[in-house]
Amino acid sequence: MKVYKLFLGLSLLSIVLVSCKNNQKEETPSVETNEVTTPQKAQKKILTEEDRKVIASVLAKVMSTPELKSFASAIVTVEATELLSKEDGPYTVLAPTNAAFDAIPKEKMNPFLRPENKANFGKLVKNHIVKGSFTSFDLIQNMKGSGKVELETVGGAKITATREGTDIIITDANGKKAKIGTKDITGGNGIVHAIDVVLNIK
């Protein structure tokens, strides 16, 4: 009896499904058309000279380097993007790593993040940017003789490059030292070196 009911149920279900399909076929008139639809291709944007300049800039290099995301965010916050993307420079960017920013005590970093201290934060960021293009080789070559290279940042701070073994060390006016890690990231308007300490912060 149970088998019979199951068979009857399945039979009724199949009849309903077939009738539905037939109704759909009858209700949908076939329309012949000779029109052929072709998918429209998305138009490629033609890059201007300025677009190419921005894409190749040191700003783009900083933003595309994962270990420099915090510094990239700082550049955007202080509105220094045009300096590093549109100006010819050339510039040497000594970009603190994410770990370097994380190492700053909150009581020292938080005041810079307040809106009223935006100018001071901007100066801090610009004190990691040097006018001129200095690869690691250039820095080492310029150290010959005196053993150091004195540089001035866009923010007006004095920094010094020296060597300790095979490492290039950057020292700020307060005596704080940072080591260059990832180096010679070349952009269209300068060079980027990653450093392990945020400089010029007391």
From TrEMBL:
Keyword Isomerase: no
SMART domains cross-referenced by the UniProt entry: FAS1
Keywords: Signal
Entry annotated with the keyword Signal: yes
InterPro entries in the record: Adhesion/Biosynth-related, FAS1_domain
Organism superkingdom: Bacteria
Signal peptide location: 1-20
Family annotation (Pfam families): Fasciclin
Record domain FAS1: where: 55-199
GO CC, alphabetical: extracellular space
Protein name: Fasciclin domain-containing protein
Organism per entry: Halomarinibacterium sedimenti
